[in-house]
Inverse folding.
């Protein structure tokens, strides 16, 4: 397999030829927003779960990047619970 170095804004899932790479990238990006918020918040997982309108096991799954356990809709709801807005852009295919 040929080694490839990706820029930070590139889609790792697309590079790995994962089906639905755009969908997977959106989920990962949303989880990274939540993880960053959690680290800055100083909250424990139980209190963070209350703030994110979810359960402690779900917080644990986010922190462990188990993106396959979440839909985009669920992650958007969690992000909105911490006062963030989500914007989705639709672009022409390359």
């Amino acid at each position: 397999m040929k080694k490839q170095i990706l820029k930070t804004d590139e889609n790792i899932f697309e590079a790995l030829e994962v089906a639905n790479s755009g969908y997977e990238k959106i989920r990962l990006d949303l989880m990274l927003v939540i993880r960053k918020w959690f680290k800055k918040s100083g909250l424990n997982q139980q209190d963070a779960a209350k703030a994110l309108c979810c359960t402690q096991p779900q917080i644990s799954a986010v922190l462990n990047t188990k993106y396959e356990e979440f839909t985009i809709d669920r992650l958007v709801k969690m992000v909105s619970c911490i006062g963030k807005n989500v914007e989705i852009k639709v672009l022409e295919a390359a």
Notes: The helical segments are 12-15, 21-41, 45-51, 56-63, 72-81.
